[in-house]
Design goal:
alpha/beta, Rossmann fold, 6-stranded parallel sheet, two-stranded parallel ribbon, 11 helices, 16% strand
Length: 288
């Protein structure tokens, strides 16, 4: 099985390359520096040359606040880039797995979002990722596409909440973190592992892939400080107080029942995955 991975230089792309390379598949990583998905001809040429069985489309403009000020670029990457990938994949009869986000939801629900819940994004990033979902569904026939929605990603190779908390705590800085956004912090390796299972099983449709449980960003910061033993002040605040350009859903927990039912994967609680990530970075002891 041959898989092209777009956005292979990013956090999830790196985890995908690592996991897929050990999963008895031929992984063909294309970082954004080597393949600009907004360039339709370049995408067509790459897929025509590689003739993959699957394209795992992880390339995206993910900086949520920057998307508000760069709407044209955000839509070019997240919507039109996905269109280029889907059309080129259709031409070589490849399937596409598209990585999406919890930010396609507005956060008004008080229970975990299922794959059947109607999206209603609050910000440009969420609208772009939802646009990518719909382009994929319109371009490829049923059975030839997969959408994997994940959330609150952290991992090697990119700026993320977990690493920022670690950096600031190591510098002895006081931390002020919002306590009114609830979701599920998810290690990129967890998502990559689920993706390789989905791909090898030739599944189709929409799947929610996150770690188990839920927490506020403040609770995640508390757990990071507990695990690392950092002794710095941690204060709660509200999202409104920060005055960020992009609106965030107050609650964006994703339901993984479908994933568990159809793959047998039971996501580990977010605390365990976080401890494993910190252990890999040699910041804490290996979890038992």
């Amino acid at each position: 099985m041959r898989l092209v991975v777009t956005g292979a230089g990013g956090m999830l792309g790196r985890a995908l390359s690592r996991v897929l390379a050990s999963a008895e598949v031929e992984c063909l990583p294309y970082p954004s520096s080597a393949l600009d998905v907004t360039d339709r001809r370049a995408v067509e040429e790459a897929l025509r040359s590689e003739r993959p069985d699957w394209v795992v489309h992880a390339a995206a403009f993910t900086r949520v606040d920057d998307c508000e000020g760069e709407q044209e670029r955000a839509m070019a990457v997240n919507v039109e880039g996905t269109r280029h990938v889907a059309e080129a994949a259709a031409a070589v009869e490849a399937r596409v797995l598209y990585v999406s986000t919890d930010y396609v939801f507005d956060g008004r629900k008080s229970a975990p979002y299922t794959e059947e819940d109607e999206p209603a994004p609050l910000n440009v990033y969420g609208r772009g990722k939802l646009g990518g979902e719909r382009v994929l569904q319109k371009t490829l026939p049923d059975g030839r596409w997969v959408i994997v929605r994940s959330a609150w990603l952290y991992g090697e190779g990119g700026r993320n909440f977990v690493d920022r908390i670690i950096e600031r705590s190591e510098a002895g800085q006081q931390l002020t973190v919002v306590d009114d956004q609830v979701g599920t912090p998810t290690w990129t390796v967890v998502v990559a592992w689920a993706i390789q299972v989905i791909v090898k099983a030739q599944l189709a449709g929409i799947y929610h892939v996150v770690s188990g449980g839920a927490a506020s960003w403040f609770e995640v910061a508390e757990e990071i400080l507990r695990l690392t033993g950092a002794d710095v002040p941690l204060r709660p605040t509200t999202t409104a107080t920060l005055g960020l350009p992009a609106r965030r859903p107050g609650y964006s927990v994703l339901d993984t029942t479908k994933l568990q039912r159809e793959t047998g994967i039971v996501p580990e609680a977010w605390q365990g995955a976080l401890a494993a990530y910190l252990a890999e970075r040699r910041l804490v002891a290996e979890p038992n």
